[in-house]
């Protein structure tokens, strides 16, 4: 299904699964469920083409400190990305995939521009579980470990931020046991509804960056309302 058809579609993908505050599925239609009131996290499960994965490996090898921040017009993403991304083998396949995500995100929320950040990471940028204060962020990990998150039934929100009393996430009582921590896979498209979404104050999706071992890398893209 084309991204432009997402918002107008009332068809729910048959393979989607709903539990607690989150929904997962393997077709783009699942992204529209972010508009459902109890839902604050949606995952579109997908696999990446080999060319895209190969480009990300080359990006890690050749540009280990790559950090791109830009505001892109949804009408000309391919041209903009071609000028912003390193010219490595597989660039066109990577740009095609990234432009698809931009198209889906902008159509879903009726955006003329999208705030994009693409980074090669060697550490957890947000190591503690938290919620975002914005409307809804898209996160997708192109290389390495995916985002970790907690369902509403597996989190004590009073332990977020200063409520942890200086204790680590696994010591504070934020979640009952390690099995409560869930993780997106490489290639998955994750929508994280934040506290800034209308009527969602204090109910944003609880998530964090995964801890990385020495030498481990990630390539992560985030998209926000511009």
Automatic annotation (TrEMBL):
It comes from the Bacteria. InterPro entries: DUF1826 (IPR014955). It holds the Pfam family DUF1826. This is DUF1826 domain-containing protein. It comes from Neptunomonas japonica JAMM 1380.
